[in-house]
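Researcher: We're teaching a course module on how sequence relates to structure. For the next exercise, students receive a sequence and then see the predicted structure as tokens, so they can try to spot secondary structure elements on their own. Here is the exercise chain.
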Amino acid sequence: MSKTIRSMIEVKKAKGYGQPVHRWHDHGTDKHHLRAGRLRIHQLTCGSGGRMSQGATIQKSAPIAYPWQAAFGRALPKKKIREHSGANSRLKEWFVEQVEQIVWQYMLAPKTIKLPARPGVPEVQVFGLRLRPTGLHENVLRHIDGAVQFPVLFERNHGQGDQAKTQAAAYKRPSQTNANRWVLFSYFATDWMLAATARTTKPWAFHIAQLYYASLQGLIPLPARPQEALSGWIARVELTASTRSEDKKQDEAGQGKQVDRQAESSATQRRPKTECEQLSR
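Model: And here is the predicted structure for the students to work with:
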């Protein structure tokens, strides 16, 4: 790991916490990127093996209470992240305008939560984003996600009151064709909630991948079907979102044509009256 990366993540070697970070060009993305979905207040929890169990219990959308042993609490320098991942000028502007601070809140790893790793999910990182009033563009999340070679869960914070915090994440897995690349799917997020909202109990899990899947499904806006794999579930949600977006565009186009026809009809009806008025002058 280079000195730049060490300084960026501020890792203490004595604790043995090593966070691999790679450049943006190593980050593979899925071509079916759509807008982030919105959360239903309750969702199913995860069954074993990353599939959604039919009789799973209901879980609230509040952030998870991770074990204190997983707390990391290290600030990540925004400048280092921008430089290392090769952000363009527009993205750098969004970074400065929209993000006040990035905190590496939790490291969910075998050493910290006593759960075994699984291929594709050796660790999960939880980043806290303190936002400015300008809002947050999804590309900023992708920019941060792309610099980290592990799945990431985001907890976004925005002051106090009933619009204070929310969670967001995109399903992230290693590429099947290139071991150095990660595939990043669409982002999903909860509704904004009170700053004082208590954290919910950590989902029961056999391994880190199962905990990751359980955390993700609390963000996905459609319920899972019995024994549906996570990747298939997300693909179905993306297809639904794409269809709704296309239907909305068609409806708006149809309304526009209707307004044009009404305007043309009104002009046609006014024309004879105007011609008569001209003749009577």
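Model: If you want an answer key for the exercise: Residues 3-242 form one domain. The longest helix spans residues 230-280.
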